[in-house]
């Protein structure tokens, strides 16, 4: 008789082991690592178990090769500052994102100062953030954007130029052999950062593992989530190696499983999840293989997205620091797959379609035919087509200096809309039960960069009684001095917290 068949029969015959904790965090990425660290600092008595289906921490969306690592602070990302029909530029979203990234930096600063994060240079480096545009129309847009943003405290150090001699100093690779008649403009902010969220996540979880009340379980796949009569949640888990099943009971469950969060949220059955769908978008980078070229570029230079392109496909020539080495990427090039994770299943998209979300998904699809057309075009691109896109940024680019690197998988949020039936959202959204006992993070950028602000707001929603205590609020202000204030409205405080982060995180 087949040995595996006998083993499976034995497993089926066994009763699932049961345990209980206060909090279950599903997914060992930057969101769970951040939430777990915040909970432990604010309420060190809470018992936590982190569940990860892979054998590594931060192996999906948080991995350095799977995300942009820009430290999204709206210093250079033009999709956060849309141009209006009258020619003005709307900057409210940029201000909001910049405020949230400063909260992340303050929290990381606290962790470094308290020896929780020991080597900040392994996860964050200072790299100038630049926007670059070509042609009269886009140059006018960038100039208008600069004039609006440079008046704000958070962006007061932004510099703008159309001077080609200055541009040759800032971005020599991009200016080499460029047509002297071509109109080009750029903005620059030197305080920009490159963040290796994979390294940061591993450091945070490594620290959490030193705590007696926190457990990390790898190779454990969540199969179901059910509400019990007592209001607690029962999470059913399967060991991907031996097939054994077990159940964990918890007062609070956070689903931070990247693209898979939607599928798990649907299993919870909460009414708040009804109507949500997901649209997966994959991607690739061109990765430079020539060390001589890599060392000539030191900036993150973002351009404008093509018409119909999703925001995460904004082209950028990107200096990265991964595993201690400087790297140079260009892209990303969008693609389509029905997988919700890089190491997911091709059945992810079909499995996510329910009666409650099929109408919003069809409506969003019909309203975004240009996106579908764009993705098909991207998938069909040959290596020479990809090189042509790079040459718009770097005229001297040669294919032999570059290779393909597969990026991570993103799932954009589709939600119900009274007017359109369904709309496609290009942001990050937290969906939680009315009583706050379960929550899931859906969507993509700028999630990782704004993770601290997102998770603090989640704690306020899901742990309201603790969040009201004076001890909780005092600890929060200790970790994040600007919490409850707007740095953009307080130039002195903004300068103070940025200087503190600059010193603690060794940003120079």
UniProtKB/TrEMBL annotation:
Catalytic activity, reaction form: (S)-malate + a quinone = a quinol + oxaloacetate
Entry's transmembrane regions: 21-39
Cofactor section: FAD
GO molecular function: (S)-2-hydroxyglutarate dehydrogenase activity; L-malate dehydrogenase (quinone) activity
GO process terms (BP): tricarboxylic acid cycle
Source organism superkingdom: Bacteria
Gene3D superfamilies: FAD/NAD(P)-binding domain
Matching InterPro entries: FAD/NAD-bd_sf, MQO
Keyword Disulfide bond: no
Pathway per the UniProt entry: Carbohydrate metabolism; tricarboxylic acid cycle; oxaloacetate from (S)-malate (quinone route): step 1/1
Keywords: FAD, Flavoprotein, Membrane, Oxidoreductase, Transmembrane, Transmembrane helix, Tricarboxylic acid cycle
EC number annotated for this UniProt entry: 1.1.5.4
UniProt similarity note: Belongs to the MQO family.
NCBIfam families from the UniProt entry: mal_quin_oxido, PRK05257.1-1, PRK05257.1-3, PRK05257.1-4, PRK05257.2-1, PRK05257.2-4, PRK05257.3-1, PRK05257.3-2
UniProt-recorded name of the protein: Probable malate:quinone oxidoreductase
């Amino acid at each position: 008789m087949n040995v595996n068949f006998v083993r499976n029969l034995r497993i089926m015959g066994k009763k699932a082991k049961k345990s209980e904790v206060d909090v279950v965090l599903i997914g060992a990425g930057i969101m769970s690592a951040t939430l777990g660290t915040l909970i432990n600092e604010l309420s060190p008595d809470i018992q936590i178990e982190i569940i990860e289906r892979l054998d590594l921490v931060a192996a999906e969306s948080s991995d350095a090769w799977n995300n942009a690592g820009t430290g999204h602070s709206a210093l250079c990302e033009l999709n956060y500052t849309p141009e209006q029909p009258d020619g003005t530029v709307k900057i409210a979203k940029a201000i909001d994102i910049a405020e949230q990234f400063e909260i992340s930096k303050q929290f990381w600063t606290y962790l470094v100062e308290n020896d929780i994060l020991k080597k900040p240079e392994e996860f964050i480096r200072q790299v100038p953030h630049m926007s670059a545009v070509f042609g009269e129309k886009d140059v006018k847009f960038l100039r208008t954007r600069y004039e609006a943003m440079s008046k704000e405290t958070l962006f007061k150090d932004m510099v703008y130029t159309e001077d080609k001699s200055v541009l040759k100093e800032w971005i020599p690779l991009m200016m080499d052999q460029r047509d002297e008649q071509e109109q080009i403009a750029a903005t620059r902010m030197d305080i920009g950062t490159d963040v290796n969220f994979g390294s940061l996540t591993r450091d945070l979880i490594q620290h959490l593992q030193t705590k007696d009340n926190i457990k990390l379980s790898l190779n454990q796949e969540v199969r179901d989530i059910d509400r019990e009569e007592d209001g607690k949640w029962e999470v059913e888990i399967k060991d991907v190696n031996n097939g054994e099943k077990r159940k964990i009971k918890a007062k609070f469950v956070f689903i931070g499983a990247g693209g898979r969060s939607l599928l798990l949220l649907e299993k919870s059955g909460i009414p708040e999840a009804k109507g949500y769908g997901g649209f997966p978008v994959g991607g690739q980078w061109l990765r430079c293989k020539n060390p001589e070229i890599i060392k000539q570029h030191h900036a993150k230079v973002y351009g404008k997205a093509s018409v119909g392109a999703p925001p995460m496909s904004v082209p950028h020539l990107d200096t990265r620091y991964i595993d201690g080495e400087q790297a140079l990427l260009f892209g990303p090039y969008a693609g389509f797959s029905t997988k919700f994770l890089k190491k997911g299943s091709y059945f992810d998209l079909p499995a996510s379609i329910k009666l409650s979300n099929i109408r919003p998904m069809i409506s969003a699809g019909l309203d975004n035919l240009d996106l579908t057309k764009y993705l098909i075009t991207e998938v069909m691109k040959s290596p020479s087509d990809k090189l042509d896109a790079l040459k718009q940024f770097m005229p001297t680019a040669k294919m032999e200096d570059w290779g393909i690197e597969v990026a991570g998988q993103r799932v954009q949020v589709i939600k119900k809309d009274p007017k359109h039936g369904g709309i496609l959202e290009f942001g990050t959204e937290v969906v939680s039960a009315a009583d706050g006992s379960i929550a899931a993070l859906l969507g993509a950028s700028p999630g990782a960069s704004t993770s601290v602000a997102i998770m603090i707001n989640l704690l306020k929603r899901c742990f309201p009684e603790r969040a009201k205590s004076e001890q909780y609020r005092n600890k929060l202000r200790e970790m994040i001095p600007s919490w409850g204030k707007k740095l953009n409205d307080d130039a002195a405080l903004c300068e103070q917290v940025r200087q503190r982060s600059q010193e603690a995180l060794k940003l120079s």
